[in-house]
Amino acid sequence: MAGYLSTHVLNTAEGVPGAGIAVELWRLEPAPVLVARTVTTVDGRNRDAFYPEGAGFVAGLHELRFGIGAYFAGRGPGAAFYDVVPVRVRLEAGQGHYHVPLLCSPFGYTTYRGS
């Protein structure tokens, strides 16, 4: 398999999935190209597959852009410190499934390569 990518957003401030968060995937090499846009589901996962079953997969540097500012703005008083959180990852052919979880709050975030 060429490779495919999924993501999962968790709102660690409230202990709930990050539902309704806009996510974009950009391929940055050789020039920036928007690959896909999606919105996370009620369980915080990407609704539409990024590179489903390797379709259109191109190895190289990519960037996921998570719209957490709008998400937290819609959840009550105050605004998030972050607006759009970019996470750059290098995707290589033959590596199978890439999973990039984002754990976030209005004031911080962390990520890692999941499984």
TrEMBL record:
<dbReference type="GO" id="GO:0033971">
    <property type="term" value="F:hydroxyisourate hydrolase activity"/>
</dbReference>
<dbReference type="InterPro" id="IPR036817">
    <property type="entry name" value="Transthyretin/HIU_hydrolase_sf"/>
</dbReference>
<dbReference type="InterPro" id="IPR023416">
    <property type="entry name" value="Transthyretin/HIU_hydrolase_d"/>
</dbReference>
<keyword id="KW-0659">Purine metabolism</keyword>
<keyword id="KW-0378">Hydrolase</keyword>
<feature type="domain" description="Transthyretin/hydroxyisourate hydrolase">
    <location>
        <begin position="5"/>
        <end position="114"/>
    </location>
</feature>
<comment type="function">
    <text>Catalyzes the hydrolysis of 5-hydroxyisourate (HIU) to 2-oxo-4-hydroxy-4-carboxy-5-ureidoimidazoline (OHCU).</text>
</comment>
<dbReference type="Pfam" id="PF00576">
    <property type="entry name" value="Transthyretin"/>
</dbReference>
<comment type="similarity">
    <text>Belongs to the transthyretin family. 5-hydroxyisourate hydrolase subfamily.</text>
</comment>
<comment type="subunit">
    <text>Homotetramer.</text>
</comment>
<dbReference type="InterPro" id="IPR014306">
    <property type="entry name" value="Hydroxyisourate_hydrolase"/>
</dbReference>
<dbReference type="InterPro" id="IPR023418">
    <property type="entry name" value="Thyroxine_BS"/>
</dbReference>
<protein>
    <recommendedName>
        <fullName>5-hydroxyisourate hydrolase</fullName>
        <ecNumber>3.5.2.17</ecNumber>
    </recommendedName>
</protein>
